[in-house]
Design brief:
Layout lengths: L10 E8 L7 H17 L4 E3 L17 H17 L6 E10 L2 E10 L2 E7 L24 E5 L2 E5 L3 E5 L6 E6 L9 H7 L4 E6 L7 H15 L3 E6 L15 E5 L2 E5 L8 E8 H10 L1 H9 L1 H4 L3 E5 L24 H26 L3 E5 L4 H16 L7 E5 L7 H14 L2 E4 L3 H11 L12 H22 L1 E5 L3 H6 L13 E2 L6 H13 L5 H11 L19 H5 L2 H13 L4 H12 L21 H17 L1 H4 L29 H10 L4
Parallel strand pairs: 1-2, 2-3, 8-15, 9-10, 10-11, 16-17, 16-19, 17-18, 19-20
Antiparallel strand pairs: 1-14, 3-4, 4-5, 6-7, 8-9, 11-12, 12-13
């Protein structure tokens, strides 16, 4: 398995190309297409999509019916076919072609010296500035036909899916401009028939706001069809007698913008991106209604014909031409992050508010440590009380120092609780823990410095034992503080421990998002300035469970030393749970996302001194840790308390997104890491 190859990892490179057109000069246009085709070949492009009628120009009007032009088009196609013999890329080019008694507005699909097929435009605009029915016949009824083009007898119709045999999942369908604007586009039926890459050759003169309309339609088509949609519009060189042209190029995938080219360019432009074929396949597998829709339209879908071809993709590292977010749960775009934080925070607040209301008027009992998770749960609880008009004193916050509790973290818990105005108490668990360890015959009970998992869990368990009994005593419910990342990794104490609560507000929030939620709360003035000051201090602390005493000169206990960097583990969590990605692919994507500290974007507000890079060896090591912990701790997730789903990526609740037997093994996943993921 070629680990470094994007094609071997489930990607295919596509290009949306716009170029200056020479009106009514097919020979010159063919030369321009060939030049761009060679550039696409050099960039390892699998599919290159050119504008509508790019061999003549869209705006030649009655010249479409001139024999001289139509004959020259055939010659131009022959030139392109010959030139394509040693090129890797499939070329999708626009041309007027005669079939029977009519001229059709066509997309010609060319590859390695042959024509794979011709797709006529199904729906012709004949309104406002458009007069296509004056020259062309609609192609919606031309199924199961053949056409002769430049001496090649090839399939002709809108019913063609071009299936690549040596790049699994690369199934191409082509439609032309207006086809995208009708209620049921040909591409929608083609997607149900298996097409994953939908191409649109467009003329589309530009008017104010039309570019936004195109983005909306392309994005919508890619999202509804769980597909990639490649759009290329005509630009420079088209007649401006009555219209103008902008040469817009777009590639969307499942509603996400992968690339958009410069508008109104001077000269040719290629928008080249890598489409995630594995993602498209997984989305369709997960969304059962996609295939249900195929059954509804079975008669139409069954009419599609499959044209097979082979790409012979390159081996080795050709890079990855798409953005891979370091933080799948945290957008890089400031506006998007702002909205995500607003929604996530209010999902948590309204979830707790409803739970409190459904019980009556219970108090909210929370253990606070001064760490990120309990801090966020505390401010969520306070905001819930604010919204229902109850005093914050109905939030009962307890700090419970153990054998390794630091003065700094305890002071943060104290300062924050007092600033918020909650009911606050300190409850020292050390005497009870010492007694329990003595009763158990644990070496620590005899004075020995044995800090094993039992030593840790006695403290973690006692804290929640006290919280549950305090809730009983004072008419409250225990609000859990554990987060999504900890649940995925099993970094929680089962039963009477931080795995359990009456309601857990952070269960849908990953560790990498918590800090941004707290920053959002500060920046939006959700609480008093004094609260914001304490929250800022808490954000700067290292993540630690504070369960093992620190020996003089030794490094304090750090969670990430045991479970791995949450940066990487949240990355793995998102791709495994949401996308069903196999380990080698997760490693490939993580390596591209994290190998270069200075490449790509970081979320707004992310501290400069927290920015890190990870080697492939790091990625492999912590991926293996994730898989072992993920499979080994499902029993904890199978018994989760209630809590709201926050991110579309998912949750660990067995009543929500994630169902898995507690005794499943990760053998196949670990074997793939061992076999397919190199260390360097």
């Amino acid at each position: 398995m070629d680990f470094y190859s994007a094609y071997a990892q489930g990607f295919a490179r596509v290009a949306a190309v716009t170029l200056p057109v020479h009106l009514a000069d097919p020979a010159a246009n063919a030369a321009a297409v060939i030049e761009q085709a060679r550039a696409c070949h050099d960039e390892h492009v699998a599919v290159a999509v050119f504008p509508e009628l790019c061999l003549t120009g869209y705006s030649v009007d009655d010249l479409f019916l001139q024999d001289a032009l139509l004959a020259s088009v055939e010659e131009a196609i022959a030139e392109i076919v010959a030139a394509s013999a040693d090129l890797m890329s499939v070329l999708v080019i626009g041309a007027p072609l005669v079939q029977g008694n009519r001229v059709h507005n066509c997309a010609v699909v060319v590859h390695r010296g042959t024509i794979l097929g011709v797709a006529p435009k199904s729906y012709l605009p004949n309104y406002r500035e458009f007069y296509e029915r004056r020259w062309f016949a609609p192609g919606d009824d031309r199924e199961l036909e053949w056409i002769t083009v430049a001496g090649h007898d090839v399939r002709f119709g809108p019913d063609l899916v071009f299936r690549c045999l040596d790049v699994p999942g690369l199934d191409l369908h082509v439609e032309v401009c207006e086809d995208m604007w009708v209620p049921v586009p040909p591409s929608a039926e083609a997607a149900l028939a298996g097409a994953t890459v939908l191409a649109n050759l467009s003329g589309s003169p530009i008017t104010v706001a039309r570019a936004e309309d195109r983005r909306l339609l392309v994005r919508s088509a890619s999202a509804r069809c769980s597909a990639a949609y490649v759009y290329a519009a005509a630009g420079q060189g088209e007649s401006t007698t009555d219209l103008s042209w902008d040469g817009q190029t777009l590639v969307y995938e499942c509603g996400d913008l992968l690339g958009e080219g410069e508008r109104f360019p001077d000269g040719p432009r290629r928008t080249v991106v890598d489409v995630d074929l594995d993602r498209l396949r997984q989305e369709r597998l997960r969304q059962g209604s996609f295939d249900d829709n195929r059954r509804t339209h079975l008669e139409r879908v069954q009419r599609f014909r499959t044209v097979e071809w082979e790409l012979e993709p390159p081996a080795g590292d050709i890079g990855l031409l798409r953005k891979v977010d370091r933080f799948p749960f945290v957008p890089d775009d400031p506006a998007r992050l702002e909205l995500d934080c607003y929604e996530a925070y209010n999902i948590q607040v309204s979830g707790l508010e409803q739970r409190l209301a459904s019980i009556g008027t219970p108090k909210a009992v929370i253990g606070v440590s001064g760490g990120l998770d309990s801090t966020h749960a505390l401010i969520v609880a306070c905001k819930a009380m604010d919204r229902v008009g109850r005093p914050r004193s109905d939030v009962l916050a307890f700090t419970m120092p153990g054998f390794a509790t630091g003065e700094a973290s305890k002071s943060y818990a104290t300062r924050l609780s007092r600033a918020l105005g909650v009911t606050f108490e300190e409850l020292d668990i050390r005497p009870a823990a010492e007694q329990m360890l003595r009763d158990m015959g644990h070496p620590f009970g005899r004075g020995e410095k044995v800090y094993d998992v039992t030593f840790e869990n006695v403290q973690a368990g006692l804290r929640y034992d006290y919280l549950f009994r305090l809730a009983n005593q004072r008419g409250g419910i225990v609000v859990g503080t554990g987060d999504l990342s900890e649940l995925a990794l099993g970094w929680c104490t089962y039963g009477v421990g931080d795995q359990m609560s009456h309601y857990t507000v952070n269960a849908g929030v990953p560790k990498t998002l918590v800090q941004h939620l707290i920053r959002w709360v500060i920046s939006h003035g959700e609480f008093e300035p004094e609260v914001g000051d304490v929250l800022g201090d808490i954000l700067r602390q290292e993540i630690t469970p504070e369960l093992i005493p620190t020996e003089e000169g030794a490094k304090p206990q750090a969670t990430e030393d045991s479970v791995g960097p949450y940066n990487l583990q949240d990355f793995t969590l998102a791709h495994l749970v949401r996308h069903g990605a196999r380990p080698r692919r997760i490693a490939f994507l993580a390596w591209h996302a994290w190998k270069d500290l200075d490449a790509g974007e970081w979320p707004p507000g992310f501290p400069d001194d927290a920015r890190v890079a990870y080697s492939l060896e790091d990625v492999r090591r912590w991926l293996e840790v994730f898989v072992k912990r993920f499979f080994g701790n499902q029993f904890k997730r199978s018994a989760l308390p209630n809590g709201p789903k926050v991110s579309a990526i998912g949750t660990m609740s067995p009543r929500g997104d994630w169902r898995m037997p507690s005794d499943a093994k990760g053998t196949a996943w670990l074997a793939e890491i061992e076999r397919d993921v190199p260390t360097s």
